[in-house]
Prior knowledge:
Elements: E1 2-8, E2 11-16, E3 28-37, H1 41-46, E4 62-69, E5 81-83, H2 94-97, E6 135-138, E7 146-148, H3 163-174, E8 181-185, H4 189-200, E9 205-210, H5 213-220, E10 225-228, H6 229-232, H7 236-243, E11 249-254, H8 264-273, H9 278-288, H10 294-302, E12 303-311, H11 324-329, E13 333-336, H12 341-348, E14 366-369, H13 373-381, E15 390-393
Parallel strand pairs: 8-9, 8-11, 9-10, 11-12, 12-13, 14-15
Antiparallel strand pairs: 1-2, 3-4, 3-6, 3-15, 4-5, 5-7
Helix pairs in contact: 3-4, 3-12, 7-10
Amino acid sequence: MRALTWQGRRDVRVETVPDPVVQEPTDVIVRVTSSGICGSDLHLYEVLGPYLDPGDILGHEPMGVVEETGADVTAVGRGDRVVVPFNISCGDCFMCGQGLQSQCETTQVREYGSGAALFGYTKLYGQVPGGQAELLRVPFGNTLPVKVPHGPPDDRFVYLSDVLPTAWQAVEYAAVPPGGSLTVLGLGPIGDMAARIALHRGAGLVIGVDLVTDRLQRAAARGVHTLDLRIYGKDVGDAVRDLTGGRGTDAVIDAVGMEAHGATAAKAGQWAVGKLPDPAARALMERAGIDRLSALLTAVDAVRRGGTVSVSGVYGGAVDPLPLLKMFDKQLQLRMGQANVRNWVPSILPLLGDDDPLGVDGFATHHLPLEDAPKAYETFQKKADGMVKTLLRP
Length: 394
């Protein structure tokens, strides 16, 4: 089969690799029909190379059609259309029973002290072959794949793999009161969708912050009050307070994470780590890694006293310095973590009908063949060509 493989920093290639096969009686093999490129894929492209090996297959936002099933699979069959959640959860352990599928005790990567394994996402999360490929082996075939109807285009359902549940959890964790206010930092796919979900769920004011014109315009068209970071810079908190009677919003979602602009020293450190031999780079990241915290610091500043900061952007630092004095003084709540995909699917599925209240049918800005994936990664990393969300078609 053809698959997108990691070969080095800013070097991904589509290559011919062996087809996956059923290894366990509960495995299914899915022929992928669509697979998204995620903002966190850029962390692999740019920062997390020390945890990858050349030839690793990337991608964790796939859907497709079941082509083969193991002997014990009864929940889906050949020809069924399924979405594959990005976190690999058994559905039966204590954590899965708590709705914390991202912490699945069956697939936790204990070697690195990490939560549930993820498709296509480094040694830190199991080094499981990903879904930017023609075929994908999916374990736990009775509990992990999400069966969806045939008929509507893939765009209707593919975001159940990551974007929708990640954005939904971000809004859930933000705990915006009815008619309340929310600031969303970063209007990439997750931030954009989180803003849509918050408005759909009854937020009175949603403020979106970004520095890419296309993203700002896209969010504004959905009723988001946008702030251009290029204009407001370090004064975003003041601008938010000006819009909220001097108070700040009830909650802030940080949908940016380690890719935040600013913090030049931390950016240089990330770049330098990427140049070290893998063992040395891993040791440095695990013991002394520091993220660029511009977005998180802005969140702490912009949220009202007693408010909530919800972090959906991925951070990877080991010794990130947090402004705990300010956070304590403002009596903030802080919630974060990988999305528990399967936990949120029942709430989201009813919104994926023909009325399309979240605008999923037109959410993708680009549909490209798998062979164009290397160029798509480069374009997405540069935030060029109006690219917000790309779906690859194997």
